[in-house]
DNA sequence: CTACATATTTCATGATGTCAAGTAACCGGG
DNA sequence: CCCGGTTACTTGACATCATGAAATATGTAG
């Protein structure tokens, strides 16, 4: 709570503008993401899953958790990725119920290319000096909470590739 | 990873982390948005359209432009909103081909309630002092480009039709 | 009036999402 | 060993969202 005396200052114009800006960033993020995915004839969901798997093969159930959707949904997405030869299902030696989804060679190549063509990073951030990026990092870290500064996604611990 | 000294520092770790943080913000934004929409038994797309219309009635075509999708898609979304009594189609007196989608009284109420329950603004931003929010606003403005700081949706740059 | 352009809808199709039910496998207690 | 409960994945039915092509109605230029 904040600066003003009002009890519910939900319409503080500065906060509103920041939210608005974040909305713009979110929209742009998606545009770029979908465009990058489209270049490889992938949908957003497929690209997201492939990106996840390129870090580490995962059981279907874990994928569903990361995407916050039902496991039955993942079946279809992996089906389509598998049909295109980008992903394969492997048995988990430790538990025969589990199927591990792992990228194929081609899947890894596509995932890498996807990451590179996703230039959301460079374009808009190039505008900012190193100091400004440091400042932005600090502010975003505080926004998303301390723990999230370490791993945005439980999938991506400190050492992404 | 050869981050150091390379001239094309597309994998500059600082930039990478900022991008990661933005990804987290994007994910959280969506969670909150969908949760807020879900409270009113609306999907994300329906909530977005209703929010748009609550500012101003719009022709179907314009809605499609703002959402960056095909107009035929909007027909279905408006159909569902209309079936729930949240939106109505009105003729455009100036052009009988055009149908204006406008929120009903109840639609306006829901839109307002939606905006309020979307506390993405307050929760994470409450962590930041006014000065920090000013700083964040400045950085985001530069990221998204100057003009985007003025109006919410740059989808309407100049005269379109 | 004719020809073309625009706004919306309809239809077919595919991807994504939910939920409920089914199958296979793990696991604990008898 | 068998039984009952849980877990992992798949399947099916269904709703939403998205695209693209074709149809309809209207506007507009020549």
UniProtKB/TrEMBL annotation, chains A, B:
Residues 15-145 form the HTH marR-type domain. It holds the Pfam family MarR_2. InterPro entries: HTH_MarR-typ, MarR/SlyA-like, Tscrpt_reg_MarR-type_CS, WH-like_DNA-bd_sf, WH_DNA-bd_sf. The keyword Transcription regulation applies. Coiled coil: none annotated. Gene3D superfamilies: Winged helix-like DNA-binding domain superfamily/Winged helix DNA-binding domain (1.10.10.10). The keyword DNA-binding applies. It comes from the Bacteria. Keywords: DNA-binding, Transcription, Transcription regulation. PANTHER family: MARR FAMILY REGULATORY PROTEIN, TRANSCRIPTIONAL REGULATOR, MARR FAMILY. This is MarR family transcriptional regulator. It comes from Streptomyces rectiviolaceus.
């Amino acid at each position: 709570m904040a600066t003003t005396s009002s009890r519910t200052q939900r319409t503080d114009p500065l906060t509103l503008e920041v939210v608005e800006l974040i909305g713009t960033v979110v929209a742009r993020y998606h545009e770029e993401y979908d465009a990058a995915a489209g270049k490889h004839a992938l949908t957003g969901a497929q690209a997201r899953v492939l990106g996840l798997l390129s870090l580490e093969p995962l059981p279907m159930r874990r994928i569903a958790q990361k995407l916050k959707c039902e496991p039955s949904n993942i079946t279809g997405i992996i089906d389509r990725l598998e049909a295109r030869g980008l992903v394969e299902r492997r048995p988990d030696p430790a538990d025969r119920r589990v199927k591990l989804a792992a990228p194929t060679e081609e899947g890894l190549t596509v995932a890498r290319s996807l990451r590179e063509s996703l230039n959301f990073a460079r374009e808009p951030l190039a505008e900012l000096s190193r100091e400004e990026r440091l400042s932005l990092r600090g502010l975003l870290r505080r926004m998303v909470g301390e723990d999230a500064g370490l791993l945005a996604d439980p999938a991506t611990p400190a050492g992404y590739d």
